[in-house]
Amino acid sequence: MDLAKYAELFRTESREHLAEIDTALLSLERDGDAAHIAVLFRSTHTIKGMAASMGYGAVEQLSHALETLLDAMRSGARTLDPDAVALLFDGSDALAQSVNDTVEGRGTALSPAGVALLERLASAGDSARSVSENDHIFGAPRLPQDLGTLELSDAVASVKPSIAEKTIEVRLSPDASLKGVRALMVLARIEAMGTVRSIVPAQHSWTDDAFDGTFSVAIGTSTADDAIESSIRGAGDVARVTIREATVGRSERETLRHVRIDLRRLDTLLDLVGELVITRDRLVRTADGMAENGVADRVLAGVVHDTARLVSALQEEVLRTRMVPVGQVFDRFPRLVRDVARDLGKDITFITEGREIELDRSLLDAIGDPIVHLLRNAADHGVESPDIRRRAGKHPKGRLILRAARDRAAVVIQVEDDGGGINREAVLKRAQSQGLVDADITILSDEALLKVLSRSGFSTAAAVTSISGRGVGIDVVASRVRALGGALELQSVLGRGTMFTLRLPVTLAIVRALLVRIGTETYALPAAHVIEALEYDAGAVSTLRGQETVTLRDDVIPLLRLRRRFGMDAESDEGTHLVMVEAGGHQTALQVDSLIGQQDVVVKPYDGVNGAETLFTGATILGDGTPALIVDLGGLT
Amino acid sequence: MGSRTVLICDDAIFMRTMVGDILQQAGFEIVGEAETGVQAVERYLQLRPDLVTMDIVMPDMGGIDAVREITKQDPAARILMCSAMGQQALVVEAIQAGAKDFVVKPFQPSRVLEAVNRVLAA
To answer: Which of A180, A236, A395 sits opposite B101 (nearest CB)?
Structure first.
C-alpha cells in the first residue's frame, strides 16, 4: 500500500484533533470539569490509531502514553490536579511537535525532549495503574482500542454537570438609563458563570447612542438556565432573557468535514476559471465590436450573453468553494494567548467575535502570522500586569478581543486590547531624534503613529519597546497585509487600549484592475484604490518643498511619475494621463503613459527580486498572453 | 432588625435632601452626609453604614476615587453611584472601581429604591 497519499490526510486530520485537544485542555484548566477528559481521550486515541497505521512511531508512542494517563484520570485513579493538567499541556505540545516533525519529513523518531516527556507521562500513568488494575480484578481488562468509542460514563457525568454551549440574549428595559453601563453589569454577571466565547453586537459599540439594549453572548457554562436567568435579572433593568443551546460550533465543524479536497485542485480550478473570465471579456468585446460595425448576428449575441452570465456564475461559485470561516484560524489563538499571558504573569480574557466570517483559503493561511504577531504584542506590551491595572483603576483582568467582520466588499480583522495604549510622545521623540518626523510636529495622529511604527528598524528599537510598550514587528505585519492587497490601521488611546485593524479583500484570486501602459509594459492598478483617471496637464504641476504636486479642484495632491519610479529613462517623461489613487489613507496622482482599460485579472503570486524593494503585489497574464505586474499602491507612496 | 443605615455623599444640599427624603420615606436611617470625596471616605470608615449613595463629581477627591478608597478598606462596601446623563464612561469606571449599581438624575423615587434594593440584596 502506498502510504504517501495518506500522509496529507494524516496531517490535516491530526491537526484538527490537536486543535480539539487544545480547546479541551483550556476548558479543563478553567473549570476542572472531568467531561473534557473524554474529548481529550477520543482525539488522542484517534491520532494514535492513524499514526500506528502510518508507521509514525514517535507520534504513536506519545499518544499512547497520553492516552494511558488520560484513562487513569478518567477512571479516577489519577487525580485531576494542576500538576496533572500541566503535564497534559506539555504532552499535547510534544505530540503536536512530533506530528509536525513527522509530516514535514524531519524523521519519525522521538526527539530527546520527547523521550524525557514520554518518561514523565509513563511514570504518571503507571503510578496510577496500581489502583486501576485493582478494578480490573472485578471485570475483564478493557482493551485500549475500545476506549476510544466509549462515551463519558454517567457516573462521571453526574459528579459535575458538563459544560454546555449556550447563547444568551438579553433585552434591557426600553426606559433603562445608560444602557451601555447596565449591559456591562449584566456581562460581568454572565462572565462569572462561564467562559464567554463571543458577544454581539461588539462590546465597544455598547456605549454608542445607537445601542438599543439588546445583545447576545455565547458562553460555555455548566450553570442551569434558570440560575443564569435569575443572576442576569439581578443586574437590574432587564426586560427579557432568552437562553438557547448553541449548535453553531458543531454544524460549523460538520460543514468543514465535507471540504476535503486537495487544495491544489482548487487552485487549478481557480486558474482555469480565471482564464475563462479573461476569455469571456475578449468574447464580449469582440461581439460588441461586431455590433458596432453592423455585422452582429442576433443568435450569436444571445449565446455570447448567456455564456458571459454563466461564466460569472461559475466564477462566483468557484470562489465560494475556496471560502473558509475564519474560526478555523482563530481556534489556534486561545492557547497562544493563554501561554503568553501565563509566561508574563498576566490575567487576560480572550474573546473572539465573528468566527463565521469567511475568507479565501489562501488569504486565511497568510494572515495567521500577522495575527499571531498582533496578539503577542497586545498580550505582551498592551495589556498591563494585574498590579498596574489595579493601580490605574481598571479591572485586574485584561481583555483581548479578536474580531472578524464584513465591511462592504472587505473583511476587517481587529485585534483590540484594553491595555495601556501607545505612548505617542515617546514614539514621537524617538522618531524625531532619528529624523523620521519633522521637528515642528508636536503630536502624532493615529495614521502618522502607524507610519512611524511600520518603519523597519524603528519598530525594533529596544528603547521604544520599553518606553512605548509596543512596536515589535509592526513593519512585518504592515508589509504582509499590504502584500495581500489589504491595509493596516491603528487606533490607540493612552491608558485605555489599542486596536489594530486589518482590512482585507474577501478574495485574492481575481481583482478588478485598471490597465495602464508605462514604457513598453502594461501594468495593473487595483481598481479598488483608483478614484479617477484624467488627462495630464503640465500647467497644473508645481513643486512644494521639493515634492512635485498637481492642483486639482483646489486640492494639492502629490504627483508620482511612474516612469521614474520604475527606473525607466526620464527623458521621454511625457505621460498623457494621471490616475488618482487612494492608498494608505491619502491620495496620490500617478502619471502614466496611457490608459488601456479596466478588466478582471487573475492574481498570480509574484516573488520579486530578492532584496529588492517590492513595488508589486503580484502578476497576471493578460488575454493576449502577455504578463503584467500588479502595482502595490500602498507601498508606492 | 433595626432600620438600614445610609451615608449620602453629594456636594449639593439639594441632592442630599432629595435622596435623603426618598430613602427616609422608605424606612432607611440617614446616619451621615458628606460633601467631598475625602469626607465620604472618613465618614464611611467611622459610620460603617449599610449603604452609601455617591455622587460622581465632587470637590476634593471625586466620587470614583472615593469608591476606590472605600472598597480598598472594605471590599464589601455597598455603594450606589448617582450620575447625571452623559456620564456613561465615568459610571463604567465607578462600577469597575467597586460600586455596586447606579441611578441617573433626575431621580425617580421608584428607580432609586429598586437600585437600593438590588445593592442590598447582592
So the answer is: A236
